[in-house]
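Input record (one chain):
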Amino acid sequence: MTPLPLLSHIPGPVAPPIVGHTLTVVRDPYGSQQRFIDRFGPVYKTKVLGVWHINLCGADAMEMVLMDRAQSFSSAKGWDAIERLFAGGLMLQDFAEHRRNRRIMQSAFRASALESYRKAMVPALEEMIAALPRGRRFCFYDAIKDLTLRIGCAVFLGLRPDDPQAARLNRALREQINAALSVIRAPLPMTPMQRGLRARAQLRAQLRGLIAPRRRAGGDDFFSRMCRARDEDGNGWTEEELLDQFNFLMMAAHDTTASALTAIVWLLGAHPQWQVKLADEARRLGPDLSAAGALEDMYQTDLVIKEALRLVPPVPFIPRRAVADVTWQGHLIPAGASVTVNPGVTMMSPALFHRPERFDPLRFAPNRAEDKAHRFAWAPFGGGAHKCIGMHFALMEIKLLLAVLLRGDRITLSGRQPVNWQRLPIPRPRCGLPIVLSRA
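The corresponding structure, as predicted from the sequence alone:
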């Protein structure tokens, strides 16, 4: 076993025994990081879950680590906590291996592919949103988690939401996600990790049976495209590679999109004047959202989405591990050190954004363009080689859902104010975001 590098030269707070800074960071990740920055500067260490992490803070640090021009930082080793469940996924690969698989996957995210996903998504969204309760309180986060999972089966696998096969896949994916978020990392009896690993095996067995028919018959759903995906040299995936990539992609697309949509609905409920603007914009799109170009004229919606992702980014901290010695701002980052960069805290910096704590979508308008202050001022999708490959798909799904919802409904927040967000590992409102939908 490779010994952990010594970090005595990196400043940081004294670590309490056993728990270290884990509870402090989990309870208040943004506030604790800002306090540590004020005290120690933009390079400091904390001990979380028994591991010392070097925190490299600010937009310059994000550019250095995420662009990684010298290939000094590993994404796979940074995300090793979820390797048991999602090994072989794109985010858990580096350098040449990552480039190869990203080129293959890119064929499933081309413009023509996105067009086919949109056509499949609209009727599914209309059906699911029509089934949401009206006139009574419900927890939006729970509802949208379920809805995005079912949309995933419709668009990614071409299955109807009421298909029994879709229900089995959804259950397996939920078990894996619960395991990934569990504190207990070993597959002990009766633990989420044991259930998650069992669900992973079941999901892979179910998907494996679909590969040969989808390769023969084709299809416009995501899984069928991945079965046939090739890079520019004609290289595709083995069955094992395909199962690994698809399993990870389903998890990543589901949880982050549900978090983003919850943040947007929360902010629209808290700022009804913007809800009216977006509803008016949605009604002007025309009757058929599946028509070509239907989403092009959503300027106000784009502003709100960008601001929501700034205030509540789905991945507020990005881990890496140094695989070579790097010197940054006079500090040696030794090979083997765990490193964290902080898009969530950076996007709340008053040096980059005017009054950053305020909801102000117009900060992204061309006459202000606060996000252009630095290449990594606004980076909710990461950056560099590992920038979210599904970014355009996610934005399309969010826009479609908002357009379908706001054409017929108004959102009223029904819980206490302010909403308290749990930021890690993926943001969610602690209250579940109770709302009431009413017909417009």
